[in-house]
Write a structure and sequence with these properties.
The complex is a heterotrimer of chains A (632), B (182) and C (233). With 632 residues, chain A is of the alpha/beta class. Chain A has 25 helices and 14 strands. In chain C, β6 and β7 form a beta hairpin. The chains are: A alpha/beta (632), B alpha/beta (182), C alpha+beta (233). Chains A and C meet through α3, α4, α19, α20 and α21 of A and α2 and β8 of C.
């Protein structure tokens, strides 16, 4: 482990520097751990010693947080930590072969660290590069478009210990792949213009002043600018773009009307934890339209009277961090953030970026807030809801990246304009992250009401067997449903649109998603923690050919239990991909149901292998047939 | 009642200690009442070596720790209409399953090679001996089990209750005092 | 206390701010639970106390009682789901009751009895978990941990020590102690701690006191858990 070892003093120096930058604030624990790991390659016991001392928090708290997130390592994982994206689209593009190729050329086993402590190679959940996969992360920096040549080159760079700053820049080039633009993606919003428009909605100067006071004090003022903006958002009938579709205006209003305790402030959080496999539109919005998103957040702050903002950026998008920070600095320079925004006294709002560390569940708003507070990302008990008791118990709105972008446009152009786009129940446009079996994967913006068939035609998808809309927690659509539409009245979506042609095995698609949920369950509640593991085992049992109708019935019972007893949406939806595919692609399961009667999940003959080896026996009695149910 | 055909009941102990069988015998004189309704097939009580193909109820004590256990369990499943798991070992592996966190290789090494006092120890490899499985499994993980009587061992009263419930066509139920995992 | 809600068809009173389980317990109605403890802030993780409120499932330990609520608890459907959760807890860890010192006084076991759990149903995980016998007076047997976090809350909120915490994620979630060595002996854990007394299962055990009470005379041998809780003992 010589390569990853640092002297305790050096580690202490790193920790001290990082902790000081975060004002010794334990609520920045996730950020502190991330930066310590970036500098030290892992979070060593020495680092935890020092953190305990400098932050004044118990070791259990630090280890509890470090142990929760996939990207934090409390064991050495090498100087180069390679994680292959394991979304179904990566699998379809041969990610396993590429991983094995890399492992073979580096002489390591998947999941293990090389003997010299240089490198580890493992798998991770979808990294959001589905339109340019297969993809991997090296020390959390994304590389897409993997080919065998590129893997050879990566192996070489690692073997030669080339620092990542000297790796070919084209490796790290991430394409936007915008294929269809509508109002959002074709907007060329002048930074500040939406804010100016929002402010201009105040009927007269006197009221404007009182509104600005309301921003400062965070109190509802009753009428004028902020309320006018809120009205526009409501009139626009804007609904959350993160999947759940809660009415944005109502959420903002509830936050605005929430009682503010002494010393407290209102908080605006942008949820950029785009973890749903198959979704990548927030990545593109943040990379290409950051000002639109920041402006939307500032409009929100204006409307609800918030003074502090966060972007919770998923750890897989680490490469966007410096760019986004630069845009924020620029906005501060332009007086679009900071104190006295647009020169208005008391108009204070700023945004800081928090990076996640590999935990899908943090996309759930209360888990996200826990993570922002530097804790394990466990969803909270609700009520109370974040709008009244959010970040550090303060009134907080959490909205999706796309929601804020739309809010900026609404502030600029008005609610009626926006409500006129889309359908009666679903106003505006929706960004779709299209990937899988099609000629032109990428981002497609459509007014709500677009049919699945039209999207398939536009992206050049042929011979389509199924589309998974809104990721594993969404819905699987078969060809007889391709005339259904994207919209809250029919198929709501957070944006993922994953296409499978007729060569794909829908059972394996569902199995991939079940593995994903099992990996991402936070472990807080019994039904999800244990249930997702049981489900994974059952799907693996079917995969191995040991499945019987008994197992299918078990899967259905588990689904019922997860839906009714789970703590949050992760558990509620974990069985969806299985149930959908059973209902719509039953032959894929029938094919797997190779046993008529109950058959063990484990291989009985293999269970004797250790004994055979120890005794040197290989006679007939030293073997067992595995299946007692007989072939179906 | 007497014209009614008696139910055939087979019993066995796999990786168990026969404690459940002893507890079964503790139903004492109720055994006579039971025998009005049942006759024993393969069982340590009869010394019949194989289960009749028309057996009605099989009662299995003990979990699965080796290949022979698996063969016997499969014979029971194949020939009995109803299988009952009796006791902690059949139900969750019990005491034998507490080796499951150790590798079989380490166990065999320890037992036959490295234990103090062993000289020239060797791991037995006679084909007559059943090979041990790498882990001990409860029986419901290998065949479908219809009913369970928990306990280590279940009391005679608990066994009596389940059997009489079944003979009367009721879903077996153990209330407070009879339901025990130890 | 003029406000009431309906629990399994019975009208029961509640005070402002009370949760459903608090109101139920005071009314002498037992709702199965493991991570809930009347002296601590509710956690809501075991989900055993799930009830149907106006037709929708929710944990009764975290849901505040409200006027006119219609709550279902002791129904066949809900008890079957609770039983399944109990079975999940049994297969997730290594629960060998005959060799456990807590047997007969274990809340998991007593709750499983109450729910009529005749078998663990699922395939066992048989996880490989360590035992920490480092402390002179206490033993930690992690094989039996059900992650209820009662010791975490007791140590943090009552003892002011933070001896325990949960780490890991998902099925790898596990209990840790506050020492670089990871050993209880290297923490400031003490016998008088509240955390030493709250474990509902057999993880935190005083040494040299195992099996002190003969079978037949242990807590849940004498009376089932629903009666004990309903009588407020």
């Amino acid at each position: 482990m010589a390569l990853t070892e640092m002297h305790a003093e050096a580690v202490a120096g790193v920790v001290d520097r990082v902790v000081a930058r975060y004002r010794r604030d334990p609520s920045c624990m996730v950020q502190i751990l991330r930066e310590v790991q970036e500098a030290c390659d892992w979070i060593s016991p020495e680092a935890i010693d020092r953190l305990q001392l400098t932050l004044g928090v118990p070791r259990t708290k630090i280890e509890g947080v470090a142990g929760f997130y996939s990207f934090f390592y409390t064991q050495p994982r090498g100087k180069y930590r390679v994680l292959f994206s394991d979304n179904i689209t990566d699998c379809m593009l041969g990610n396993r072969d590429l991983r094995d190729q890399l492992c073979n050329s580096l002489w390591i086993e998947p999941g293990k660290v090389s003997e010299d402590g240089l490198v580890s190679v493992a798998m991770t959940s979808c990294t959001g590069l589905c339109d340019q996969g297969p993809a991997l992360l090296v020390n959390n920096y994304a590389i897409g478009g993997l080919t065998t040549e590129r893997i050879d080159r990566v192996a070489e760079l690692i073997r030669e210990r080339v620092p990542m700053s000297a790796w070919p820049p084209e490796f790290f080039r991430i394409e936007d792949n915008i294929r269809r633009s509508d109002v959002l993606l074709s907007s060329d919003l002048e930074p500040g213009s939406a804010l100016l428009a929002a402010r201009a909605r105040a009927p007269d100067e006197g009221l404007l002043a009182s509104n600005m006071r309301s921003w400062r004090e965070g109190l509802p003022s009753g009428i004028g600018g902020p309320v006018a903006v809120l009205d526009e958002i409501k009139r626009a009938n804007l609904r959350g773009r993160g999947g759940a579709g809660f009415t944005t205006g109502l959420k903002w209003e509830a936050c605005r009307n929430a009682q503010l305790k002494a010393g407290a402030q209102r908080i605006v959080v942008c949820n950029a934890d785009e973890g749903e496999p198959g979704t990548f539109k927030d990545r593109v919005l943040l990379s290409k339209f950051p000002d639109l998103v920041f402006e939307g957040m500032t409009v929100a702050a204006y409307a609800v009277g918030a003074t502090r903002g966060f972007i919770y950026l998923r750890g897989e998008y680490r490469y966007l961090l410096d760019h986004l920070n630069a845009v924020l600095s620029n906005r501060r320079r332009e007086k679009l953030l900071g104190e006295n925004i647009l020169g208005i006294p008391g108009a204070d709002f700023d945004i800081e970026i928090h990076l996640g560390a590999g935990a899908y569940v943090c996309g759930e708003e209360s888990a996200l807030i826990e993570s922002l507070e530097g804790k394990r990302g466990t969803p909270r008990n609700r009520p109370p809801f974040p709008v009244t008791n959010g970040y550090l118990d303060q009134p907080t709105i959490v909205n999706n990246v796309e929601t804020f972008a739309a809010a900026a446009l609404i502030a600029l152009k008005g609610g009626d304009w926006y409500a006129g786009i889309g359908t009666r129940h679903s106003a505006g446009t929706k960004l779709l992250s299209v990937s899988g079996d099609c000629l032109r994967p990428g981002i497609y913006e459509y007014p709500f009401g677009i049919s699945i068939r039209q999207v398939l035609e536009d992206c050049g998808a042929e011979d389509v067997q199924a589309v998974q809309v809104s990721g594993p927690s969404g819905i699987c659509i078969g060809p007889d449903e391709f005339d259904r539409i994207i919209g809250f009245e029919d198929i709501p979506t957070a944006g993922a649109f994953t296409i499978f042609n007729n060569s794909r095995d829908m059972f394996e698609v569902a199995r991939n998603y079940v593995h994903f949920f099992q990996h991402e369950s936070c472990g807080f509640c019994t039904p999800c923690r244990v249930g997702t593991s049981l489900l994974k085992n059952l799907m693996d049992k079917l995969h191995k050919g040991a499945g019987s109708p008994y197992d299918l019935a078990e899967i259905e019972k588990l689904n019922q239990l997860l839906q009714s007893m789970s703590h949050c949406g992760l558990g509620h939806t974990a069985c969806n991909p299985v149930l959908d595919t059973i209902a719509k692609f039953r032959p894929a399961y029938e094919k797997r149901m190779m046993q008529k009667d109950f058959t063990p999940a484990f291989d009985l003959d293999r269970a004797l292998a250790a004994a055979r080896q120890m005794t040197g026996r290989d006679d007939a009695a030293a073997h067992l047939t595995t299946h007692n149910g007989g072939a179906a | 009642m007497s014209e009614k055909k008696k139910l055939k009941v087979a019993t066995t102990s796999l990786a168990g200690c026969f404690g459940c069988h002893m507890s079964f015998l503790d139903i004492d004189e109720r055994l006579f009442t039971l025998l009005e309704h049942i006759e024993f097939d393969r069982s340590p009580l009869t010394d019949i070596k194989h289960v009749s193909p028309d057996c009605d109820i099989g009662i299995i004590e003990g979990g699965l720790c080796n290949a022979e256990n698996v063969h016997v369990l499969r014979e029971f499943r194949q020939n009995c209409k109803i299988l009952i798991a009796i006791g902690a070992c059949a139900i969750n592996g019990g005491l034998p399953a507490q080796r499951n966190h150790l590798s079989l290789a380490a166990i065999l090494e320890e037992v036959y090679h490295t234990s103090p006092g062993l000289t020239n120890g060797m791991i037995p490899n006679d084909p007559e001996l059943p090979l041990p499985l790498d882990q001990v499994h409860p029986i419901h993980e290998v065949v479908k089990i219809d009913y369970f009587i928990p306990g280590c061992p279940p009391s005679a009263d608990a066994i009596w209750k389940v059997l009489t419930d079944l003979l009367a066509g009721r879903e077996p139920e153990l209330g407070h005092g009879l339901m025990h995992y130890d | 206390m003029s406000q009431t809600l309906t629990l399994d068809g019975k009208s029961i009173p509640f005070n402002d701010g009370e949760t459903i389980i608090q109101a139920a317990t005071r009314a002498g109605v037992f709702i199965p639970h493991l991570c809930y403890h009347p002296e601590f802030k509710p956690h809501g993780s075991c989900k055993l106390c799930t009830v149907k409120v106006n037709g929708r499932q929710t944990a009764s330990c975290t849901m505040r009682a409200a006027v006119g609520m219609v709550v279902e608890s002791d129904t066949e459907e809900i008890n079957a789901e609770r039983r399944a959760l109990t079975q999940m807890l049994f297969v997730e860890g290594n629960h060998f009751c005959p060799s456990c010192e807590k047997s007969g006084q274990c809340q998991l076991q007593a709750t499983a009895y109450h729910l009529g759990m005749m078998s663990p149903h699922y395939d066992h995980f048989f996880p490989n978990r360590a035992v920490d016998a480092s402390h002179p007076d206490f033993l930690l047997d992690f094989n039996r941990c059900i992650l209820c976090s009662l010791c975490v809350r007791a140590s943090r909120d009552v003892d002011g020590k933070n001896v325990f915490a949960l780490s890991g994620r998902g099925i790898d979630t596990h209990l840790i102690v506050n020492a670089r060595s990871g050993k209880l002996a290297d923490t400031n854990f003490a016998e008088a701690d509240k955390a030493a007394q709250v474990c509902p299962v057999g993880v935190i055990l005083p040494k040299r006191r195992g099996f002190a009470v003969p079978i037949g005379e242990r807590k849940y041998d004498k009376q089932p858990i629903d009666e004990i809780v309903a009588e407020g003992k």
